[in-house]
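Subject: sequence -> structure tokens, single chain

Hey, anyone have a minute? Need the predicted structure for the following. Not urgent.
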Amino acid sequence: MRALLRTFSWQEARQHPWRHLAAVAAVALGVALAFSVHLINASALDEFSQAVRAVGGQPDVELRAVRETFDDRVFDAVARHPGVAIAAPVLEIATTVRTQAGTDAGDQGGARRVPLRVVGLDGLLAARIATTLAPVPLAGADRLALFAPDAVFLNAAARQALGLAGADRAGAVLSLQAGPRTRAVRLAGTVAAGGTPLAVMDIGAAQDLFERTGRLSRIDLRLAA
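Reply:
Had a minute. Here:
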């Protein structure tokens, strides 16, 4: 290989140095151009993905517990990170809910119990990072109900399963299973999230209700540009 380089390539380079320099420059420019196109495409796709997540109400990143929950002191360190624009703490609980028989929320067949995923979050941040989970008060409900300790906001699947769809049911009383006990909460509004039955409430209220003070299930992040 070295003999071939000395015999042919080196001799050719010595006889035509400018042609070889032009060839090297052309190859370098071609590589630079291809790399530039790759960077532009990657940046455009990333911006498009961020826009889709923002419109669809999804965070850029979710930090989840390896097990069920983790200490909420982690949140302070994450929120102060320079690469994080918005950080929202979330507590998720799998439980069951039923309407209380004899109330306006009950259907004609009496109380109804359904599995329910409860999401405790900061309602003020939800509108900026997870729009589908942003609480919307019902007509007649207190505008500050978002911060009430007994207020829940149900998605369409939960309202349908509990017989609360198609009517203004502000103030309807529901019973949430919290460990061995049941706790009464009231319907204050709705959320746009789809999927299985889901309820949103203030994260502090959820921690108190389910005795998970100082615990989080995940942290939703909107990254800095």
